[in-house]
Predict the 3D structure of the following.
Amino acid sequence: MDVTTERSAFREDLLRGKTAIVTGASRGIGAAIAHRLCEAGANVVICSRSADAVGEVANTLAAKGYTIHAIAADISQKADVESLIEETTAQFSQIDILVNNAGITRDMLLMRLKDEDWHAVLQTNLTGTMYCTRAVLRPMIRQKSGRIINISSVVGLAGNAGQVNYAAAKAGIIGLTKATAKEVGARGITVNAVAPGFITTDMTAQISEQHQKQLLEMIPLREFGHPEDVADAVCFLASDAARYITGQTLQVDGGMVM
Ligand code: NAI
């Protein structure tokens, strides 16, 4: 049998009838995750700060026949997160999967790091992840099931010069993932993190060609990852195939950090 056909048939049923929220899905990894979850049969709600940008992704996926809904929400704002959850519940009556993907960078060496850039990165990447996670726990506990997947980074495991704020937030996400997994495991909810390495998106587009060459040499698979590589890992963790996995960090990095 053709491998591609077999693979897509497997995907079509993987999340049939489930409802998923993906934060920060107006482009890059978040948009690829939304696409993959749609392909797997889920109803998907996507958010980002810009209604236009996230609406465009939703229109493209809706045109392919998927059930997708776009909401403008800034996950660093508690009130926005609360309305995101309320609107999703009103639309689909339950929330089975939350993917905390939204993230920003404000890179600078620590000596010159501005307080506002420290706070902005922590507020979006870590506090925003906490707001969304806390808000979905009530409906997930009520239905005695749920999958929460937090997008961390290998930088949260290994550190990276010039990214103290980002590394601290991404390491914080791993701690948040483990602690939440311990709190809600008995309620049928799993909580895992995915730690991507170097993935080609807008976030990594500013990195100089020379630095990209150096990075390639650190990657055993000798290529940068694609947003779809991260999306596949998320889709697996969201599915029943990962029912006995919780509190883990799955690296999608071509072997960059071991
Ligand atoms: P990107 O910059 O291309 O996309 C980020 C998305 O998050 C955008 O849709 C943006 O609008 C949204 N966003 C940002 N702040 C938001 C907020 N406060 N509220 C709602 N939405 C918000 O980034 P990319 O590369 O797609 O990254 C996605 C996630 O993966 C991030 O958490 C990032 O830290 C992480 N990651 C990316 C890696 C890479 O190599 N690209 C490597 C490791 C982790």
Remarks:
- Residues 23-30, 47-49, 74-76, 101-104, 124, 128, 151, 153, 196, 198-199, 201-204 surround NAI (CB under 6 Å).
- The mean pLDDT is 95.
- The chain has ten helices and seven strands.
- The beta strands are 19-23, 43-48, 68-72, 97-100, 146-151, 189-196, 249-252.
